[in-house]
Amino acid sequence: METKCYKASDLDDLIKLNELKTLLIEGKLVVFPTETVYGLGGNALNKDSSKAIYEAKGRPSDNPLIVHIARKEDVKLYARIISEDAAKLMDAFWPGPITFIFDKTDIVPKETTGGLDTVALRMPNHPIAQKLILFTGVPIAAPSANISGRPSSTQFKHVYEDFNGRVDAVIDGGESLIGLESTVIDVTDKPVILRPGAITKSMIEKVLSYTIHDLSGQKPTEKVKSPGMKYTHYKPKGDVVLLHGEIDKVKAFIDQSSANLDKTAIICPNEYTNTFIGYRTRPIGEANNSKSIAKNIFSALRDMDEWDMDKIFIYYNETDEVSYAVMNRLIKASGYQIVSL
Ligand code: TXA
Ligand code: MG
Predict the structure, then answer these.
(1) Per-residue pLDDT at 315 exceeds 80
(2) How far is 20 from 226, CA to CA, in rounded Å?
């Protein structure tokens, strides 16, 4: 399949915008940028298009897709009941990096929701995403634009690597501003967080004026509410071990691991690269700047494959709520190989 590449300015050209619209309306796939990560988009109301998304991504078909909209008033087309709390949260955070789970209406096909009676809705805050959805006139189902199991794409080169030849079009929107996927919150009942993100638990609680639960810490063997929780995620090809605790102990642990230096890398905050002299390091930002780390983490994980590393140590300590969301991704990337030191 030939994949057409579009750049951001192409969306100002009506002819090109129409080409993209036609592709989506016909059930074809278009990768587009959002403020969180890139999305692998298709017409959410077309079950064949959703099937094509699963196929292109190599994703198990029981892992539901997020449906992206461009206008708040469209929620009622796809959500059966909108609680008062959900309305408050949408007002506070949309457009933006938060996804709400609602009971779905009949027009949303089960192929889009992985067979569930609920639907995940998000209104992204990215001009290209908004323009594409609004102009196309249909909601766009889009999982993160990565081959299933790989780190999400936060740069156009990741998208190209995974999807050139597998989708009909890709739009280059540069680097993702946030770099972590949206917060997912189930609002079918009392709100619960299913995936942490840049919109944090305390930001949500401030709007609701009460405390809510976060179920994202569940281990994959437990009964899962969000089907995405049970699959391998974000994994480079090499073996990943996540280390946290005191730097001296971490250094000693790595030194004792008798790793093959040519094939070993350490992902860590900038200030620790000096500690790991002799090892290949991949800095991810200042330790206390969780937003910058969030932005870098998926590309660091992807670099491990580009560098062809067999053994990857990640040194990271949680510092705040965004950092907690980063940690959530790192735990998965390590396949739950975590050492506290
Ligand atoms: O930031 C994002 O959310 C990005 C961009 C493209 O919008 N999308 C994204 O999609 O991360 P994906 O498919 O990679 O992750 C969606 C998560 C999965 O863990 C999935 O299981 C969960 O949301 N999810 C989707 N629909 C759900 C539903 N009806 N009930 C529970 N969880 C749901
Ligand atoms: Mg994903």
Answers:
(1) yes
(2) 31
